[in-house]
Design a protein that fits this description.
Blueprint (H helix, E strand, L loop, with lengths): L4 H4 L28 H16 L4 H10 L12 H14 L27 H10 L3
Length: 132
């Protein structure tokens, strides 16, 4: 059975409101050629800044996580950050709130994890208790 065009994209209406549409889209995915690390980080900073002002960043991030999107910045997180979020959700046995669309900066040693509220020391103590 063939689907009408609007039925094929049901549930993706949020994409019409995405701040990344149009000329900015090039910042969200790596180029087809080699990209130096400093250029990748700069490109991702631009993409994440766009995500911070996007009204549908949460929907975008959840889509990328649920579809296991392997490339690009989605909802303010790059590939590695999404994999880390998926691992945290898996380890916690449930769904944590989506990470905010921010450019992560190095946090002080006692800073709380924005996703679970625990500090690095708390997590380190918990991991020592698990025999790591």
């Amino acid at each position: 059975m063939a689907l009408r065009r609007d039925e094929q994209y049901e549930g993706f209406d949020w994409q019409r409101s995405a701040a990344c549409r149009g000329e900015h889209a090039v910042n969200f995915f790596p180029p087809t050629h080699f990209e130096r690390k400093d250029l990748r980080l700069a490109r991702e900073r631009v993409a994440k800044a766009i995500c911070r002002s996007c009204p549908v960043a949460a929907e975008c991030l959840e889509y990328a996580i649920s579809s296991r999107e392997p490339h690009g910045v989605w909802g303010g997180l790059n590939e590695v950050e999404r994999r880390q979020l998926i691992e945290r959700r898996t380890m916690s046995g449930g769904v944590e709130p989506a990470a905010p669309a921010t450019d992560p900066a190095p946090a002080p040693a006692a800073a709380a994890d924005p996703l679970d509220g625990s500090s690095r020391e708390q997590r380190a103590g918990a991991s020592r208790g698990r025999g790591r």
